[in-house]
Structure formats: structure tokens, C-alpha cells
């Protein structure tokens, strides 16, 4: 999509200026003609995003989409025309990139496409779940109600994502600090002690074992720090490439689910995400087969995705959803049993919502327990390593003091 700057006149002779997005100049002219405007000037907008927008990050956040969706639903409910709603929302958005995207959707709708089709042309902003729910809302005439439901869904999904990130950030931060502190000690501090001990003893002979071990490690890091950094970056890159493959994703996702403590947290989060997403889709009028297909693509874990696809296959063959989910051993028995009851009673969407609420609370408890467990473990880990280095460096000084006495 290319952005064009135009100057045009209305039928009353009023000059109108603005920007629009189109695939070509001819398409841009067609859009303006459909608005009954006489084109005075139409030029392609020059220049790209400013460097500060790139540095600060101009991507669309979940919060931007939640605010947009809530305001959009409120405006539609108040009876405002669709195009006017999009125009207002595009101009008042604090995120320039998102405002531009909404503006492009408005031009698509003005050109005669549906709102869902306009949103579908921006997959990096509006995912498949969002587009399908909007499509269901347009078809049923309940767009305002579905937008409100969608905003609630995104808020809960955002909360769940932040909880998982919070649980991961703490140990990552502690380990990063430990690596930085140990690297500084080994490369800049230990060599000073090593030179001092060498001057006092005339060589390395006679140094205590722990002291000698720390000095040898320091010498190794000084000589190979560049290679160690390259090897670490290479390992991260290789792991990412492996995860990008079908087999790699399957192996690593399966390993993550089996990891002690973290695996249980990820499993609960996956159950909460699956049940809430599928429940929202079904209650909004999306067919269950389409809902399962969309949910599988947003699962975030290959093992969970395969289990959902098996359930979809089961439904297409006239069987139940619960049986393949239970067979996968990813979903707890309580979940599969409640889904089975929901299928039997015809209230699957309500049952899925109850499961999602329960597991949202379970994730809260799991994150709190994980944080309280990791805090002392990380402190002991960091204190042990730093304490060993400090004691190793002071052992020769204690030995020298005893000799002098």
C-alpha cells in the first residue's frame, strides 16, 4: 500500500486536503471519485518513518487495539456511521502507525469492501481471531456487542501474557546480573589480585586451591572472552533457527511443557488461552470448525496446536471435542470433562468461559508461587558464586597474615 497526498474540491467548491492509502495512483483516483471529489493534485507521499519513530518503536501494542476496539464498539452502539467512526479513531490515535492503519481501513471501506476485509489486509495489526469476530458481527448485525466482547477478550489475553512474561523476566534478570557481575570480576578485578599475589609470593606456587582455580578461570576468560560471546550468540541463533523448523518447534515445545515448575505454568496458561479464545469465537457465532482452526493457529505451543487440530478432525467426523483433547494428555481431566458436559448440554461456550476464568486464577496463583520460590533460590545461587570468588581471593591474605604472626 502506498500513501498519496491529495488536494480536491467538493461539489460546493470547498477545498479538501488529506492522505489516502492505495495500491496504485489509479486506485487512489477511483477512491476520491467515489467520494464525489474533483481532484486538483494527487502525489505520492515522500519519505519513510522518522528515525526516532523506529528507535522508540512504532509498532502497535495490545493496549492500542483494546482502546480502539472499545471506542469503536461504543460509537457503533451510539449510531455513528461506520466510516465516521473509523475517521475519528484514526485521527485521535496516539500511535501514529496504528492511526495510519485505521485510516487505510477507512479508505478500504469507503471503496466498497466490508470492514472485515479491510482489517484482513493488515494481518500484522489485526489477527485472524479479530477479523473473524468482526466478520461474524457484521453478518449478525451485532458488531457493537462483538467489539465489546472482543475488547474484553484482548484485555484478558494481555493480562495472561504479562503474567507469563513477569514470571520469566525475574529469573532472566537475576541470571543476567550474575553473568555481568562474574564477568567484571573475572576480567578486571581478579587479575589485580593475581598480580598482587604473584609479587608477594614470587609466583603462583603456594596459592590455595580455590584461589588458583579462580585465577585460572580468570586467565581463560581474558584469553577467550570474544570467542565465548560469539559462541553464545551462535548458540542462540542456532536455537532460534531450529525452533523455526517443524521438528524443532515440536521438540522444544514438548520439552517446555515437561519442565518442572515452568511446564505447569505454561500448561495452565495454554488451557486458559485455548478455552477463552474458542469460547469467544463460538459465542460470537463463528462455526466450531472454523473456531478450532483459528484457535490452533493462536495456541503458541505446537503440542497444544496438534491436540486442537485432532479435536477439529474429530468434530468433522461427527465425534466429540473432548475425546482427542483427553487423549493428548495436555489438557487436565477436569478440563476435558467440563468440555464434554458443555457439548452434551449445548452450552459449550459458557463452559469454556468458566474454565478460562478458573485457569486465569490458577495462573495468578502459579506465578505468585513461582516468584516466591525463585527469589530465595536465585539469591542463594548468586550469593554462593560471588561468595566463593571473594573467599578464594582472601584466602592467600589470611594465609600471609598467619605466616607473619
Descriptive notes:
The longest helix is centred in the middle third of the chain and has 59 residues, at 143-201. Residues 48-58 have low confidence and may be disordered. It contains 16 helices and 3 strands. It has 405 residues and is mainly alpha-helical. The chain has a 3-stranded antiparallel beta sheet.
Pick out its properties.
three-stranded antiparallel sheet, mainly alpha, 405 residues
- In which range does the helix fraction lie? over 70%
The succession of helices and strands, N to C, reads: EEHEHHHHHHHHHHHHHHH
Q: What's the Cα radius of gyration?
A: 30 Å
Overall number of strands: 3
Largest beta-sheet details: 3 strands, antiparallel
Globally, the shape reads extended
Uncertain spans: 48-58
Number of helices: 16
Distance between the termini: 83 Å
Mean pLDDT: 84
- What is the SS-derived class? mainly alpha
Strand content: 5-15%
Q: Which sequence of strands runs across the widest sheet?
A: 2-1-3
Blueprint (SSEs and pairs):
Blueprint: E1 2-9, E2 15-22, H1 25-34, E3 38-44, H2 51-56, H3 62-77, H4 82-92, H5 96-110, H6 115-120, H7 128-140, H8 143-201, H9 209-244, H10 246-258, H11 262-283, H12 288-297, H13 302-316, H14 322-328, H15 333-345, H16 348-404
Antiparallel strand pairs: 1-2, 1-3
Helix pairs in contact: 3-4, 3-8, 4-5, 7-8, 8-9, 8-11, 8-16, 9-10, 9-16, 10-11, 11-12, 11-16, 12-13, 13-14, 14-15, 15-16
Amino acid at each position: 500500500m502506498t500513501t498519496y497526498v491529495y488536494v480536491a474540491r467538493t461539489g460546493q467548491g470547498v477545498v479538501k486536503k488529506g492522505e489516502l492509502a492505495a495500491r496504485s495512483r489509479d486506485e487512489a483516483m477511483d477512491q476520491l471519485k467515489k467520494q464525489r471529489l474533483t481532484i486538483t493534485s494527487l502525489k505520492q507521499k515522500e519519505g519513510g518513518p522518522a528515525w526516532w519513530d523506529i528507535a522508540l518503536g512504532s509498532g502497535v501494542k495490545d493496549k492500542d487495539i483494546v482502546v480502539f476496539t472499545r471506542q469503536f464498539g461504543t460509537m457503533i452502539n451510539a449510531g455513528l456511521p461506520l466510516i465516521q467512526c473509523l475517521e475519528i479513531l484514526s485521527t485521535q490515535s496516539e500511535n501514529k502507525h496504528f492511526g495510519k492503519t485505521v485510516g487505510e481501513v477507512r479508505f478500504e471501506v469507503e471503496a466498497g469492501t466490508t470492514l472485515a476485509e479491510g482489517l484482513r489486509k493488515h494481518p500484522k495489526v489485526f489477527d485472524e481471531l479479530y477479523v473473524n469476530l468482526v466478520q461474524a458481527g457484521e453478518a449478525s448485525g451485532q458488531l457493537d456487542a462483538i467489539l465489546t466482547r472482543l475488547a474484553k477478550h484482548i484485555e484478558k489475553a494481555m493480562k495472561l501474557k504479562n503474567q507469563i512474561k513477569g514470571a520469566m523476566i525475574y529469573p532472566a534478570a537475576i541470571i543476567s546480573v550474575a553473568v555481568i557481575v562474574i564477568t567484571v570480576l573475572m576480567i578486571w578485578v581478579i587479575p589485580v589480585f593475581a598480580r598482587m599475589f604473584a609479587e608477594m609470593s614470587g609466583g603462583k606456587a603456594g596459592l590455595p586451591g580455590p584461589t588458583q582455580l579462580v585465577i585460572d578461570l580468570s586467565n581463560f576468560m581474558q584469553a577467550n572472552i570474544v570467542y565465548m560471546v560469539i559462541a553464545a550468540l551462535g548458540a542462540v541463533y542456532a536455537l532460534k533457527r531450529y525452533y523455526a523448523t517443524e521438528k524443532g518447534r515440536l521438540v522444544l515445545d514438548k520439552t517446555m511443557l515437561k519442565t518442572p515448575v515452568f511446564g505447569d505454568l505454561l500448561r495452565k496458561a495454554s488451557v486458559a488461552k485455548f478455552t477463552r479464545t474458542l469460547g469467544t469465537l463460538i459465542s460470537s457465532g463463528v462455526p466450531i470448525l472454523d473456531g478450532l482452526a483459528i484457535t490452533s493457529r493462536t495456541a503458541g505451543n505446537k503440542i497444544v496446536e496438534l491436540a486442537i487440530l485432532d479435536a477439529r478432525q474429530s468434530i468433522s467426523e461427527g465425534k466429540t471435542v473432548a475425546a482427542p483433547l483427553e487423549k493428548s494428555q495436555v489438557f487436565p481431566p477436569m478440563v476435558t470433562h467440563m468440555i464434554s458436559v458443555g457439548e452434551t448440554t449445548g452450552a459449550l461456550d459458557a463452559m469454556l468461559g468458566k474454565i478460562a476464568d478458573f485457569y486465569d486464577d490458577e495462573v495468578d496463583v502459579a506465578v505468585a508461587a513461582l516468584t516466591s520460590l525463585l527469589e530465595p533460590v536465585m539469591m542463594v545461587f548468586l550469593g554462593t558464586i560471588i561468595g566463593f570468588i571473594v573467599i578464594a581471593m582472601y584466602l592467600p591474605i589470611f594465609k600471609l597474615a598467619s605466616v607473619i604472626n
